[in-house]
Structures are given as structure tokens and as C-alpha cells.
Amino acid sequence: MEPLKIYLRIKRENRVFFFECSLLDPVEILKRKLLPYYKQEIQDMRIYFGDRLLDDKANLQDQAVPNDSCLILKLRKGMSGEWDE
Fold first, then answer.
1. CB distance 85 to 48 below 8 Å
2. Pick from 85, 84, 77, 70: nearest CA to 39
3. Are 56 and 27 in contact (CB under 8 A)?
4. How far is CA 2 from CA 32, 35, 67, in A?
């Protein structure tokens, strides 16, 4: 049986990306899908569901991310270690 597919939006500033994912996909998969659009390494990306930072290794189902959610992408700013607001 194929894992349940869900649709997610990932937003950063004035850009919104739409992805089809499996509930069993780890968050790291979402970051890999964003690599062609940003010149950042995966460890320099954070994805939030509301105020909650999602764990890269945990899957979407375990982190209770529902279908049609809008996630927020934040990037590390240079070498300062600071993150987008």
C-alpha cells in the first residue's frame, strides 16, 4: 500500500513552493527539494510548522504535520549564525 500523500506549501519571504509528499518523508527530504532554489546547505535551513521547529530526521506524520499545511523556511545568514526572522 502506498503511503498517504499530502500537499504542503513552504513559504519564505515572497516565495511559496508547493510540494507533494508522503507522510513518511522526513523533513530533510523537503529541504533537499528546496536546494535548487537556494544556495544554502541543508544544515543552514530550518523549517517551522507554526512556531515549532521541525526535526530533520523525523517524518511528517510523527511531527503531526497535516495535509495542506503552510510551513515556514528560515535560512542562516552568512557565517554569523543568525537566522531569518
1. no
2. 77
3. yes
4. 21, 26, 16
Locus of grid cell 506549501: 9
- Whose CA is closest to 7, among 16, 46, 18? 18
Distance in angstroms (rounded) separating the CA atoms of residues 85 and 73 = 10
pTM: 0.89
Read off the pLDDT of residues 11-37 as tens digits, 9 standing for 90 and up. Answer: 999 999 999 999 999 999 999 999 999
Instruction: Report the 10 Å Cβ neighbour count for 59.
Output: 18
d(CA 84, CA 61): 26
